[in-house]
Design goal:
Length: 494
């Protein structure tokens, strides 16, 4: 006959089983407790936190606050849950903050491009601006700005002012943030360009045949020969010129014979004929000295000698000895290179700095270490439509003829623009519509500031408005700081 199982009524056995059951019970409670703690650790985040993400890689989403970014190993930051209270009737559509072209009517839809949650866009006039409106003002302010002459809707032309945000000092050190001070700087500007040497057109002479004839003799034979002032260049034999000289001599003889008779009217007529003959000779390249010599000795010359009008260099010689020339044929070119022109191209944004008589330094690889001083004499009022540059002419003394036509030279123009507040170039974050600098407020607090800039001078910008002397601004890791500002909502409108 079976009887129910029962422990022997032995005091020793009962005392040994009771502790064992107690240990087993405690172990079971500990297992449930640990499991509950692990589950709570996975979800161990504040109730208002949706997920944790990386400021550099917004696609990273984690549920644990202790996780790291798997891409850059940076600490993650909390993303609050949306606490929107807008009615569904106020929502026009849902869009992606990274891809505004995405539009959906489903509030639970995902962005087909990046997989992010969509945010609501309110209908016009329906309460305050939603997150998508803030993002549009933040990243697409230049696109949302109305074109000049177009009407602006009320409330759309206001720019939200940025607010302070906090980046712990330890984090700033991790991402390499450095600072620079707003100080007064001497604003000196150096403009460099490349120019081309050309001869001075006021010191250049082209001899052209004014009568038909023949080249009798050449005194210069090639381009580049140096000639002195009044030195002979060539002689031309012309029957017409010889006839004109004979007529001039006959008029002189007749005038002298008439002068002895004392008839004033006839004498004035003869003098008029003499003056006309002189003018005709001048038009044929005969100088006043040659005419005076002919009037003195009354001996016509069979050839016409052309002399150099100044000391210079033969630039071109287009004839040979014995060649027949016609009226208008090119004979010889003489250029005085003691003063030359340098034509240089300046960009459109430099035109406002160019003024007449500004000193300029010229250098060339042909003469290393040597500078040729010059001055700005002319700024072309026209802009080249292809290169968007304008020409300027520089007059340069060239007594040793070291600068030669068509030579390339380097041009350096230094301008002293006085003194003023300056901000480092590396501290400026351009957004298209605004320029932003991050001001250090101490203890990890940063303030985005819209600033107005002037011209760039080397590694600094002239500061017009937005910052004060002595303030410190971020000069490196600006894009990382900008990402922090976006996540914390400090920059809503650019």
């Amino acid at each position: 006959m079976n009887t129910p199982f029962s422990l022997p009524n032995t005091p020793t056995l009962r005392h040994s089983i009771t502790p064992v059951l107690l240990v087993v019970f405690i172990t079971i409670l500990a297992v449930f407790f640990v499991a509950g703690c692990k589950q709570g650790g996975a979800e161990g985040k504040p109730a208002d936190v949706d997920y944790y993400t990386c400021t550099m890689h917004p696609s990273v989403k984690k549920q644990s606050p202790t996780d790291k970014c798997p891409i850059c190993s940076m600490d993650l930051v909390a993303v609050k849950k949306k606490t929107t209270t807008e009615k569904s009737s106020d929502v026009d559509y849902y869009t992606c903050t990274m891809h505004p072209s995405v539009k959906s009517k489903d509030p639970k839809a995902k962005c087909p491009i990046c997989g992010m949650n969509l945010v609501p866009v309110k209908k016009k006039g329906a309460g305050t601006a939603g997150p998508a409106d803030e993002h549009a003002a933040h990243t697409h302010g230049a696109q949302m700005e109305k074109m000049p002459g177009m009407p602006m809707e009320s409330g759309t032309n206001t720019t939200e002012q940025p607010t302070e945000f906090i980046v712990p000092v330890e984090r700033q050190q991790q991402i390499g943030v450095t600072y620079g001070a707003i100080e007064k700087h001497p604003l000196a500007l150096t403009i460099r360009a490349v120019g081309t040497v050309a001869y001075d057109k006021q010191r250049h002479w082209d001899y052209v045949a004014r009568v038909d004839g023949y080249v009798q003799k050449l005194f210069v034979f090639s381009r580049g020969e140096l000639v002195e002032k009044d030195a002979p260049l060539l002689t031309i034999y012309s029957p017409d010129l010889l006839t004109t000289q004979n007529e001039f001599v006959d008029v002189l003889r007749t005038r002298d014979e008439t002068a002895g008779k004392g008839d004033k009217v006839v004498l004035e007529g003869m003098q008029h004929l003499v003056d006309s003959a002189k003018q005709r000779l001048r038009l044929w390249n005969i100088s006043d000295e040659q005419i005076a010599e002919l009037e003195k000795n009354r001996k016509p010359q069979e050839t016409l000698t052309l002399n150099s009008p100044f000391k210079g260099v033969v630039q071109d010689l287009g004839v040979d000895q014995g060649r027949r020339v016609m009226t208008g044929d090119h004979l010889v070119d003489i250029a005085d290179l003691s003063v030359v022109w340098v034509w240089v191209q300046f960009y459109q944004n430099e035109i406002g700095l160019l003024k007449k008589d500004l000193p300029v330094a010229i250098t060339t690889s042909a003469h290393p270490g040597e500078k040729f001083p010059g001055k700005l004499s002319l700024v072309d009022p026209f802009v080249n439509d292809a290169s968007r540059t304008t020409r300027a002419r520089i007059d340069v003394e060239n007594p040793d003829l070291k600068l030669r036509p068509d030579m390339y030279v380097n041009v350096e123009l230094k301008l002293d623009m006085g003194e003023g507040l300056a901000v480092p170039v590396s501290a400026v974050l351009p957004t298209g519509l605004h320029n932003i600098a991050f001001v250090d407020k101490g203890e990890g607090r940063l303030e985005p500031r819209f600033i107005e800039l002037g011209r760039k001078y080397g590694d600094v910008y002239e500061l017009k408005a937005g910052l004060k002397e002595g303030e410190r601004v971020v000069t490196s890791a600006n894009f990382l700081i900008d990402a922090e500002a976006k996540v914390q909502g400090a920059l809503k409108s650019w």
